[in-house]
Amino acid sequence: MANSTTDKSKSAALPENPPLTTMAVVAPIVGWLIPGAGHILLKRYGRGVLIMISVVAMFLIGLGLQGHIYKPNGGDILDILGFVGDVGAGVLYFMARIMDWGQAAAAHATGDYGKTFLIVAGLLNFMAAADAHHIALGKKP
Amino acid sequence: MTLTHFSAAVLFALFASIVFGITQRNTTQEMFRYGLYCFAMFVGGVFVAGWVMWLLRR
């Protein structure tokens, strides 16, 4: 009972179908390119910094563990999904491609952990970008 | 860089939990609690999986 009242008051406070604003488009794109920057742009500084630290740290740990950086490809479905995950890290991914990081043959088992860290860093950044979109729309405080 | 499987799992759990907490909840308190919950589930899952593998190996 109490929960339904709370849900109603929450849904009343947050609009169901808010209009698409410029910020709702720009914030997730900026957030994708620079992890956490979407939240910082929306003045959620604490959240933005924490997301930035988390995604960048995961990406760097992945590189440190000699994880593989996937290139755009049309081959095996797992390779395609690997690329989609990696590219989620935005500028970090493009920098790694330009500097030719993550291309060394995996010398030990940690390379597999590294690949996972790199992919998950990108996927978490996609989640953060979607969150920035919702904040900009006013669907989330 | 070398990490043990356990330390890699704990770092993974830490960073993933932070982002899960921030993106999946609305208020700061809920974010903190959900982040802690996710972290506990990740690390707990590591221990459970470890014991399951130990049992399977016997």
Describe the model.
The complex is a heterodimer of chains A (141) and B (58). Chain A is an all-alpha fold and 141 residues long. Chain A has one domain. Chain A has seven helices and no strands. In chain A, helix 2 packs antiparallel against helix 7, helix 4 (45-64) runs antiparallel to helix 7 and helix 5 packs across helix 7. The relative contact order of chain A is 0.20. The model of chain B has no long low-confidence stretch (mean pLDDT 96). Chain B has helices at 5-24, 28-57. Chain B is built from two helices and no strands. Chain B is elongated. Chain B has one domain (5-57). Chain B has 58 residues and is mainly α. The termini of chain B are far apart. The longest helix of chain B has 30 residues, at 28-57. The A-B interface holds A 39, 47, 50-51, 53-55, 57-58, 61, 64-65, 110, 113, 116-117, 120-121, 124, 127-128, 130-131, 140-141 and B 1-3, 5, 8, 11-12, 15-16, 18-20, 22-23, 26-27.
